[in-house]
Each structure stands twice: as C-alpha cells, then as structure tokens.
Structures
1.
Amino acid sequence: MSKYVYGIDVGGTSIKIGLFNFESMDMINDFEVETPKLNHKDSIFETIYQGIISNNEINNILMDDILGVGIDVPCPVKKGYVHTCANLNLNDTDLISSMKKYLPDHVELVAANDATIAAFGENASLKNPYDNAVLITLGTGVGGGVILDGAIVEGATGLGGEVGHIRVYDEEEKVCGCGSKGCLEQICGTAGILNYTKNLLPNDTSILDKDQLTVKAIFDAAKKGDPVALKTVHRVAKYIGIAASILSIINEPDVFIIGGGVSKSGKFLIDLIQMYYKENARFTTGDIPFKLAMTGNQAGIIGSAMLVKSVIVST
Amino acid sequence: MSKYVYGIDVGGTSIKIGLFNFESMDMINDFEVETPKLNHKDSIFETIYQGIISNNEINNILMDDILGVGIDVPCPVKKGYVHTCANLNLNDTDLISSMKKYLPDHVELVAANDATIAAFGENASLKNPYDNAVLITLGTGVGGGVILDGAIVEGATGLGGEVGHIRVYDEEEKVCGCGSKGCLEQICGTAGILNYTKNLLPNDTSILDKDQLTVKAIFDAAKKGDPVALKTVHRVAKYIGIAASILSIINEPDVFIIGGGVSKSGKFLIDLIQMYYKENARFTTGDIPFKLAMTGNQAGIIGSAMLVKSVIVST
C-alpha cells in the first residue's frame, strides 16, 4: 500500500497544504485554507490538523499511511522552535510539540523557515541534487536559504540564510528594514528597483511610464533594449553577482538557484547575474552554475514534504 | 593503558607534530621537522611517518596506542583530497590514502585545510565549545574557517571559509591577490595596513616612523592614542566588523574568534571590532560574542588532534 507525506506552507494570509506520494514524491493534491487570526496559538495547528483529516478522507487515505508532515513558517526557526514571529501568533512556540499533540506518534515532524525550506526543495527537485546549494529569491524583499552537506543551515537562532541582508553597497545612505545599510535587498527588492528607475527616468529617453512603473515592466523593457531599464537590470544583476561571490567564498555552494517574481525574466536575468558573478568570483569558484527556481509558489509545500522525507529516509 | 592521537600541521617551511593524550587532550610533546622539498609526493608522508615512529619511541608508546592522526595543509581540501596546492607538491593528492599506506588500519585519519582546522580547534578549546563558530585570522593575509553544527565547512571543492576574501569595500581599485577587488584582506592584511598608514603619515602628526613601520608599531601607537595609528586601527576594526556582520547573516555563528599576529593587541582590538560589528549587525545577531584565539602557532596541531578525536568519538 502507498505511503504519503504532507508538506505545509504557513503564510500570513493562507496555509497551503499538499499531499505527496512518499516514494515518487508526486503531488496527489493541494489546497489552501485561510490562516486563522485567533489569539490562541493552537488555532494554526488545529487548522492544519483539520485540513489533513479532511484531505485524508477525500483521498481515502488512513492516518496510518501518513509517514511525515513538514511545516514551514515565515520567521526564523531553530530546531523546530520559533522565538519571535513578526506576522503570526507563534512567538515562543515549539512547532514540533505543538503539532505532535494532534498527530499519532508514528508521524515524523519537521519544521523550518520558509525560504530555507524552499532552498532545500529547489535543490532536491533538481535532476541531480547537489550537496551544497544556495537559493536567492527576488520579490518584494530578497530572501533565500543555504544548504550545506545536504542539510539546511539555521545558524545559532534560525537567522542563517538571510541572504537579502548581505551588505553589498558600501555607499548606501538609507537604512534598510533590517536596521543596517547597504543590504542586497535595498538594491534588488521591489522598492529598490522602482526607486532607482524613477530617479533615472526624468533625464533619459525610455519607453517606461513613470506613473505605471512595475518591476515586470522594467524587465520587459530591458529585454527590448530600453536604456533606462537596462541600467536598472544591470545594477540588480551586478549586486546579486557580488552577493553570490561573497556567499561562494564563505560557503562555496555547488549551485546557485534564483527564484521569486523577478526570476520569471528567465535566462536573460540569469545570464547577466552569471556575468557579474564571474567578474567578482574568487579563485576557482567562478564556474558554479546558476539555475532558475522551478517550484514557483509551491516551493513551500514541495520543500516541506521533501525535507520530512529526507529525515525519514535518514533515520 | 593511555591512548593517544597525533596532530600534524604541514606548512611550507616546516611540519609541526604534536602528541596528545586522547582522553584529556593534554599535549605530551611537540616538535618540528623541515618540510621535504623532494619531488616525489610521498616524501611529505614519509617524513610524517618517520616523525611519528621516532616520537613514539621517545615517549615509549606503541603504535597500537595511537588512535588517530589529524593532518592540516595550507591549501583547499575536500574530503581529504587536495586538487591544487600552491606551496607544496600535493597537487591531486588524496591525503588520507597517502598516509594510510604507512599506518596500521586501526589508526583513524582526517585531513583538512589549516585555517579551517584552526577554527575547529579554537572553538573546541573553549571552555564551552559552540555548535557554530567562525575564526578570522589576521596576519600577512586574512584567513579563517567556518564551523556549523559542529562540523567544518569545506564547500564544493574545499574553498569554503575563505573569509579574507569577503568583499567589503566597493570602491577598491587595486586588484587583490585572489583576482577580485575590495576583499577584507586588502584592508586588513599586513600590506593593506602598512600602505594605508604610509599614505596618512606625510600629512598628519604621529609618533610613527615611516621608515620603520610595522603592524605591531601601529597597534602599539594606537593604544597610546596616536591619531594616525588610531585611524588605521579603526579602519581595520570597521571592515572586520562589516565582514562579521555579513558572515552572521549568512551562517549566524554563536561566536567569532579573532586570531593571528594582530590579535595580540588583545581586548583593545576586540572591543573596537565588536563596536563596528554591532553597528552593522542585522536583526538580533548583534549580541554574538567575540573572543581572542588562544592556541597561537599551535593552532594547527591542536586543531588536527581535536578534529581526529571528534571523528573517533562520533563513530
């Protein structure tokens, strides 16, 4: 009889739940439920449990056939423990023991930060996964995760892998959301991209409309050769390349994976990043491949499911 | 009967050999032999073997009582394998199998990069070792190593932990020895420190003598309040602080350990580094302690011995 694992992606707005075949890691089905805003902490875990119960029924699966549940949350996690969570009522919460109350003993549980889980899942989804991988996701913010020797890097308290806050720009004068200055996110996050482009627009010829500026419009215009858009995109690629060269010299991954909304620009962006990376890479690290993230907004459920499978397999 | 391990530190000029009690990790004795310059690769391993044999005799110890031998070398090492070594005839060499030929099967062998081994040894030498530690060594160059979850970080090919080549200075115009620009080593290595100070001297009042300038003289003058020397030392501390803030956001160690010649300036330097680190640290990583390296030029033999002991204990 088939066995299964669940991958759960807990976000500020919704909880995504995916059921996977344990052997093939094919996804059976997935669905979303609203993230409960109730004040009692257990509401999130109850909601996950109810989701699992009803999804088991829909798929005619017994709880005995569920081998593991992987959960990600949008905050630092250390060995399953959340100290503080800005967007959810999870401060001082042991995710594992909180979930254990609802599930039978045989169900293996893992929990980690969402971007770190995504890094694990993106690498594990490659045809030939690597031992060492770094994911950089480009969206409103810049996030990511670090995988070393096949394991996720959490660091002392779960803040490891916050690649968006690598200091890359010495001359930055504005303060980043993190309280420091010169972070990768200040240049390559949505606000940084839009502000830089807006400042260029009055002085240069461009097909871009200042009043309807989006990151997508900038990348599309750059592909068409628009000089302002190209300047912005080269700047984004340059600083991602520099951040990657710093990551290389500290952790030397076998692969960089680029994800998030901006990564939809595809090979155009990857090629530019790789060019700047090679310019800044040290020693022999310049040949590390860059790949596009493939799991999209299912990164959380796929990564969580893959992480709990890897724990089950190794124990 | 007591059991023992050897720690071996292979340098370009000499090979340091230390004998340690396995239980207490007290050093029984240590000695140096010249690094052989012969062209055949085995000469280094033969020299180590002869050193072990004669030291066993001196200490009246049987080979049966040697549980392990740890070896470090001054080049990237991946799982005991050296691809290229700039200073020694060790290109394309499996250090483990090369040494295995000389030693009985029961002897556990480990080999790794010297700075990474030093990081492992410095952390393991602390009263309460941490899971995650980073060593930054300040000397002619700037080196170091990264320990995560108790294990050394080698990366894809053994280049992990090259903290001296973290890019910290965006405006640097000179090319670093590594081929890139703006590396920590360009500011905080001996040449960087001396050049920066020399450029300041013609214009400022200072007790420093331009023709007899040394890094030690600069740090001593800074302690006395010399304005030129203070400017240099603050610059060094600032960029180490920035590099540490970058390391924190990627790997979030529990501790930073500062070693190398410059670290002899002691608390004076550590306090400055910590001040700049706090200015640049992100989120809650600002409270990570900074400690001075304690093992000095025995870092290699102590770290190698501790690493092989850790492997024996865990298997």
Note: The longest strand of chain A covers residues 14-21.
2.
Amino acid sequence: MAEQEKEAALPPKENFSEWYNDLLLKGEIMDVRYPVKGLYVWFPFGFNIRRNVYDIIRRLLDKDHQETLFPLLIPENEFMKEAEHIKGFEEEVYWVTHGGTSPLDVKLALRPTSETAIYPMYKLWIRSHADMPLKLYQIVNTFRYETKHTRPLIRLREITSFKEAHTVHATWEDAASQVDEAIRLYTDFYRQLAVPVLASKRPDWDKFPGADYTIATDALMPDGKTLQVGTAHHLGDNFAKTFDITYEDAEGEQVYAYQTCYGISERSIASMISIHGDDKGLVLPPAVAPVQVVIIPIIFKKPEGVLEACEDLKAALEAAGIRVKMDASDSRPGAKYYKWEMRGVPVRLELGPRDLKNNAAMLARRDTGEKQQVSLDNITEDVLSLLGEIHEGLYEKAKASVQERIFECEDIATIKEKLAEGIAKVFWCGNKECGLKLEEDIGAGILGIPIDQTEGCSGKCPVCGSDADTQVYIARTY
Amino acid sequence: MAEQEKEAALPPKENFSEWYNDLLLKGEIMDVRYPVKGLYVWFPFGFNIRRNVYDIIRRLLDKDHQETLFPLLIPENEFMKEAEHIKGFEEEVYWVTHGGTSPLDVKLALRPTSETAIYPMYKLWIRSHADMPLKLYQIVNTFRYETKHTRPLIRLREITSFKEAHTVHATWEDAASQVDEAIRLYTDFYRQLAVPVLASKRPDWDKFPGADYTIATDALMPDGKTLQVGTAHHLGDNFAKTFDITYEDAEGEQVYAYQTCYGISERSIASMISIHGDDKGLVLPPAVAPVQVVIIPIIFKKPEGVLEACEDLKAALEAAGIRVKMDASDSRPGAKYYKWEMRGVPVRLELGPRDLKNNAAMLARRDTGEKQQVSLDNITEDVLSLLGEIHEGLYEKAKASVQERIFECEDIATIKEKLAEGIAKVFWCGNKECGLKLEEDIGAGILGIPIDQTEGCSGKCPVCGSDADTQVYIARTY
C-alpha cells in the first residue's frame, strides 16, 4: 500500500511520541486516518501480530477458564445499578438512543467494561457451591468516550481487543487468590512478549470503581512514563449484592458470592512494540512475529539454483513450524532490508551464488544487527535455537532497562528529578492525606505498592516525616 | 449450571421452533435471558463450537485473504454517502448520539455492515494496479434494529459473528470471478459443517442495496423454510464512485476500481445444529465438536484398573489430536449419556471391568445410535476413521433430505402445496412483473436462479404462460 511514501527513515526513538506514530504507519500496525477521533484501523500486518498475541493469552487462560461472549449493549437500568461503578464511568459512556428513525424506550450503553452485562446472567447461573469457581473470559470491543488526548493502541475510544475475565468464588479469600493468580498469569503473558512488568497494588483512591482493591501491572515505556497494561480487581461481594448473585451454603442459607475481574487490551501490543522497537522500525519477539524469518535470494544476474535453494530452505524451515517469507520481488536488496527490518522480522537469511557454493547463507539478526555466515547443514535447528535466544535477549535487555530506571528516593526534589527518567520508589506512611499531598507536590501519581515489597525495610515518609515500612512506586503515567 | 432443570427431554424435532429454542438452552449454545430483545449470551460450550467453526472459515480465507479490523462506529456523513445503501439500511441502524452526558457533534452509526467504514480507507490504500486484487476480511459484531420477530443465531439485533470480506479489483470481470470464488469457498466451508447449501442468484429486487447483483447460499431447514447463510455481492464500481476509489491504469488515467463483498454469520451454526440435531439434542459434525469422544468409565463397584485404562485410552486418543473428555463424575451412567448426547458428542466409549478383561470398549455413535464392541487394539485409528465416516454420513443424509424436498412445479397450486414441505423449482420468463406477481400469488419469495442451472431445459412461465428457459427456486424463508 503506497510503498513509495514509506522508504523514509523513522524519527529517532528519543523523540518517542513522533517515533511511535510514524512506526504505527510504516510498520503497518494501525492506520490513524479513520474519520473519527480515537478510532483506528488495524492494518493486516498489525492484525496478524494481534492474532499471535491473543493466541498466547487464550492458551494461558484456556487452562482453567472458558471463553464466552456477552452483548455489547447494556440497558440503562442495569448499567445504573451499581452506584460507585456509574460514578467511575458515567462521563465516558456512549449511549445508543435511536433504532432506525425511532427513539428507543430504554437507552443502551456501549459497554465500557462488562460487569453490568455479565452479572445479571451470573445471578441466573450461580445456584450452589458446585457452580464455583466460575471463570469466564471474553475478548471484545469496548468503548470509552475519552476526552483526553487519544493515541492509537493506548488511549482509544474503541478498545478493539479488550480481554476481560470475570470470576465468581465462594469466599473472599478464594477471590483474593484469584487476583494473585491473574497477576501471575499476566506476568507470564508479558514474559512471552518479552515485556517485563511491575505489579503493584493501586492506592485506594485509584482502584476500580466498585472494587475492594486493584492490583495492576505496568510497563515502563521508553520515555520514562508507565503504561498500565493489566489490572485485576477484587470486587468483594459489592456487585453480588447489587446483582443478587447468591448461592446456598452448607447450612442451607443463601449467601452472597465473591467476585473478581481482570483485563488486558491492545496496550499489550503498544508496550511490546515501544519497548523493543528501534530507529529502523519494529523489533518483534519471535513468538508473535507474523514473519519469523525472511529469505532474500541474491539473484541480480539470475544465477541458476539460487531460487531453488531458497525454496528448499523455506520448505525446511516451515516444516519445523517457523513462519517464513521469501522475498523474490524485483525490489533492490536495500529496499527489501528496509522493508523487513521495519516490520521487525527477527532473522534475515540472504542466499546468493557464492553462499550456495559454500553451502551457507548470510544471517542477519534484527535485534542486534549482527551478521554472520551460517552453514546450511542444521540450519533449521540453528534458527530455532536463535529465535529462542533472541527472545531471551530482548527480555533481558528490557528488564535491565527497567531496573536502571527505578530510583530509590527520599525527598521531593529527588523524586521530581528522577521522574524525568523513570520510576521513583519512595517510602510512604500509608496515610491517604500524605499520599494525596505527595501526588500534588510532585505532579505525578502514586502507581501503587509493589507486590514484591521487601520485608523489614523501613524509611521516612517524605511528606510527614514519620516512620514508614511501605514503599510505593511513583511515576508519570499514560 | 443448574443441571437439575435440564434432564428433561426436548420437544420432538417436528415442532421445530420449540425444539430449536429448547436445544439452544439444553445444548448450552445460547442463553436467551439477556434483558434486551434480540441480544443473547453465548454459553462457553456454544462459544467453543463457534471457535471451531470460525477456525474453519479463517483457514479457508487465509489462503489468499488477510484479516483486519475496522471500527464499529461510522460517522453519519460517511454512512449517508451511498444513496441505495442508505435506503436499504436506514430503518435498521442504531445511532449513538451521546458521549457521556454530552450530545455528539456527529451522530455515529453502529455498523450494520462495513462498506461505509472500510471504503474511505480503501480510497487511501488503492493507488495502482499493483495494489489489487486487495482481499481483506474481518470477523466482527454488527447491529440491526430488527423490528421482525428475533430469534437466536438467526435474526439478531447484535450479530456477534459477522465475517465480512471486501475485495477490490481492476476490472468488472475480475470482481465477477471473485464472487464465484466466494460462493465456492462458502460451499466448501458448509461442506466442512456437513451442511449442503443451494447457491442462487437473487432476483434484482432482492439484491444487496448498492450492488450490481447478489449470489447467495441457502440451507434448507427442517421445517421446509430456507435460511440464507451466505451472500456474495458484485458491487460494480458503484461504491468506488461514491468513495472515490481509483487507480492509475496503463494509460496513466485515474479509473474506478471494482469491488465485491461477501459475508456469513452465526447463521452457519444455526443451520448446522438445526439440520443435524435430533430429539436427543445436538448432533455435531466431528470437525467442530468441542468434545469428539467422551469416555465413560463403568465403575459403580470401584473395580481396579478401569479408571487407569480410561486414562490411558484418553491419552492415546489425545495424542492423535482427538478432543476427548472423560466423565468420571458421580452422576448415574444414564445421566451422563443424556448429558453428552444433548451436547452432540459424536462418539461415546464405555469401559467397564468386563470390557477391560476382553481388551475392548463399548462404542456408541451419536449420529445413528448404533452400539458395538470394539477392540482396544488400533482404537485410535478406528476412532479417527469413524469420525470421518460420521462426517460423511451426516452430509449425505442432509444432502438426500434436501434433494427430496426440491419439487419441480408447473402451476401455482402445486407450488403452494409443495412449499409446505420445501423448495419449488419453477420456470420463469425472467420478467420482473411476472416475478413479483408470482411472489404475490404464492405468498412466498423467489429465492433466485440456481447457479448450477441445467443448460437447454425449457418450460412455461406459470404467470404469463410464455416459454422460459430459466428456472428459479421459490421458498418460504427465514
């Protein structure tokens, strides 16, 4: 699609925002030219990445969840039942008011999230202890009338790829374990995207509307801001009381069930491409790359045997389950390198007459840029093992980059200074007033209390100066 | 979920409408109790079937199409551009008029179909001959404000599983070939669901709003009505003119492109379960059955070795890629048979102490009800081959049932009589007036001209009596 426009370099990644926008177009992830603010179009290449990413989350969830699908449209009366929940969403909800040319009797909300669509059905489905735990999920489009600046994959009016799980449990403790399990599952999911995430318990004033508490996972973006890329909410029995979800306990009494919900979205893809990409374009972890290996035949003089050798190589790699593309188009080699580097293909193999004579190929790694000659003997095994190595390399590099950008800080001035680069880790007395004052003084939010908090450490709250044994992350956020 | 309610028999299939509704609940396909008319909830089991069905269509399309995703919301000005198209849909469109508590500047339509969402982008993407053919598809939710009687999977206000493809071609002829190709692809798809379909060219007054012509595939339902389960539209350059989709031809002139679109929906699942199901519940083609084999250990006296042998059998079948469930629950065997028959599991294996001694199992086929003892030697190969046989059996039976219910008719009275049982095949002079008169006299619609029309046959138009060499299908339709 309009190749000629695109062979220009990206802006340097230091200019993160420009780089990101240009990468989405040139890497063929999203087209931002759809004529409604905050709505974007997935290019087929981007959608292919999306498929691979969502296959991973499906595989992880399918072990003990079931996939389902609930309606998009929620009647106003159901939507308005849970008071805290409405407060959290009322300014963001799109309303359908007309069907054809007639006004509807009951207004319909486009789900901003599906608690109020799902829980009236859970009321019907949960009867006894034997119906729990119930663990369902769906992957759906959801809608938020965002008034803030919108940004593809990050802040959307149509979240096209919201994976939301909703579970029901007999006890508060079981639900709490499920929240922990969800965070482990998301951490594992992000590990498979080579994205390190930080899990923390959100401060009470930043939890999900209607929840007892929220634990979230955040990715640290190249510009030092954090992106919330997963949340898990303990809903207590708050929604169960609103939607009358009860079961008969051992004594024959009807008691309320406990619930959790947890979600991720295409922000997973935003974090992955932002963290790994470079000035030449996408750098995709092999697990999700639509093309894992591109083969470039060097054939400017149409030498015999090269194309056939490339076809054989392709077939051999494909037989091992590797996603391979052979680019035998008429473009110049340089244009081909540009194109497949932009699209983040982890491994490039070039094969010309001289290589063929040596029973070898030239291999270029997208992540490090290294080139080396490799033998065609055992090339399948070598490429498979290299793909694994590339994945680990991406993860380790990203992890080191996060570690380098978490700063233990003791006073407001240092916090402010370090926030330009990354995350401040600060002691906090736990008092809400101090927390809010801290946020105000710094001009950034408390992300939350790390779930892997070190036991027994202590310091001083930078606001009130009292002793504190709790640390919090503070960050500029998307 | 509320097992106790469900061990009652279905109404007989002769009472198709009641049978269908009850099957959806007891077979755990859809829950119809969602509190908005025309919107339904997929049970996890039903959604599992949906996954398998849509994996098939994806595999077929992925050979030369690419999957993508466009926004749900279409701004009023784009939606209103194509006059015929609007006329076809204006009474059926849901409108979003408010974001939060504020009215929107531009009303947004929930897509009833995506031409007007996609084609403004195609204008940007199509520049030259080299950009064509462009063949994209998406699987999305679409919305129709249906005023007719709604019915799960068949007539919905939220079509949850609309697969729509949109292609662009350089010539009218290329687009026509693509329409034919789409019909072949759909026929193949339905073949994999063991559903025979009839393809016919819709009369001009029943084509897609804005198309040059429409070819559709219909399934013949148990009650003798036809269900339209796939459509392919030749859009000519009608939409290209509206949305300014042009390319530079060999002479350097900007000319309009030609387009097609084609779609299927969850009606594919409706037809499949309706055609194959029986008084005991679902009968699922093995390719889409979430459970292909259920193993029932006969263990009422806890005999040694039976459970282990069942586990071994399960592992052996799974290793061959078969989806197996072992039901070692405490329920009575009768309750287990009821449950798994209702869910359409193609093969049941019962294994008790006596079987074990004989190195055998009792095998029951869901489609024919036949039971026979089978040796545990080679059981994997035998089951695999039986699954294939079951699929063919379902298809052949369904095909014979369609053939028996197509009646060649010469006069209005016979047509009317035969329509109670199935489809009338009738000569038609091709005159629109006669066609409309025919529909009026009969009280049923002309489905279309069969695409496999026999060459050279001839008869008389039952309305005007003139010679005719075109036959049409007439049917009562959903």
Note: Chain A touches chain B through 58 residues (CB under 8 Å).
